[in-house]
Design goal:
The chain is mainly beta and about 500 residues long. The protein has 7 helices and 30 strands.
Length: about 500
Amino acid sequence: MRQTIFPLVRESRRHLGRSALAGVAASTSLPLLLLATTLSLSSNSFAHGTMEVPESRIYNCFLNNPENPSDPACAAAKATSGSQQFYDWNEINQASADGNHRALVPDGQLCSAGRSKYAGMDLARSDWQATPITPKADGTFDFRFYATAPHSTREWVFYITRQGYTGSEPLKWSDLFEFCRLGNEPVGADKRYTLTCPLPQVTGKHVIYTTWQRNDSTEAFYTCTDVVLGDGSSSPWADQGPLDAQNDLVADSAVTLRLFNSAGNDLETLSYTLSEDATGADWGYAFAQMVNSQSQYARIGVLDPDSGDITPVSGGNNRIYTPTEMSLAVEVDIETPQGNLPPQAVITLTPDSLSGAGSVSLSATQSSDPDSDPLSYSWASSAGSLASSTAVETTLQLDAPATARTVTVELTVSDGNLTSTATAVVSQQPTSTGGGDYDYVYPQGLGNYVPGETVVQGSDGNRYQCRPFPQGQWCNINSAYHYAPGSGTNWGDAWIAL
């Protein structure tokens, strides 16, 4: 079976499926990323976006094996605040910013927007993966922001670190200066904003910090993007995005690089066939070496901004480059023997939060195999007991915890040859002592709750206090599914269990 990277050219192309390049060309299709072998379910349905060109810090970690990052900086970020931050790459936000970014986002916590969930993004490291960018002939650069939920915009503001910034300390507001400000730019049908800004006259490795303030809400979003800028002259190499070599491939699989000119005509085709089963790191490195030795135009690896050399590295983070002046398009196909593709593991669970002891219903019925192979299932959890560890549907029984905790559930699905893993989490609070005074029985009085003061009785009989300002503004949102105390998917954003 053959899979292609970009469905970007002619009717004669018959390639469908998963991508080996999750990159920056205009035809990138993000849903292809869902076939990465490790998936996660996020309970946050209000995710909104991040910088895609050049890749933001968190998006780069998401694209490079979020469960087992080969990138040292991403691995350190995971060790600091877990892998869920990578899956929720599109919701680094402040609900009540209203343009007051400096007041709400503290120094040293800019990349996380002051949220502990994303604390790994604030680590002061010199090895964050940086994308070389160069201006167009008019001195501008087209940033591209992927908005999973586009919004009416008040303003975009771009900042960059000052010349001489070393990154030896977590990013502070005083490290930055503004270089571009835009208003309500139109969003494309593909949910991408193209944001054209003049590049500042700085060189070397820098952090670009972007704030996106909504106009239809006080909510704002924040992005840290690591870049390398030259001396202002155009680079001879156009960055076509990363080579996504996360998935293992079986023997006789073929990886093919295709180059097209500006008219969409084939310019060059190079294929690499695996002689034996190989990990993503192994075949990606071998494929890059083959391309660099045989291609007239393309190079794969890490670009040295000083020498211009492009050298492949083992373990990932290799990018595809083509000559800037040729304006080429890139496609990478993967063809596997006997049409065998990895299954897709999907977990559904009910409920995803508990107060005290209880049971959680787990289901893998939405898991699938693109080849329609029969599937087997293996469940595991970080706490509690499973009624069955191999059934398609099972129940997780949890005792009442002494303190609040997050229980991780893992599902591994196998087609007999290849596997896929998904994770989901259950938020569990200790048993409430019950009793005590309260102001309302939720949702009575909704709209009149006072942040930091109002106490309600939830549907579970327990008491909850509205969080102090600014988080407390969520208490009055009429969305029982998301913010109902103790039972909504995001109730902890608005309430404190008493």
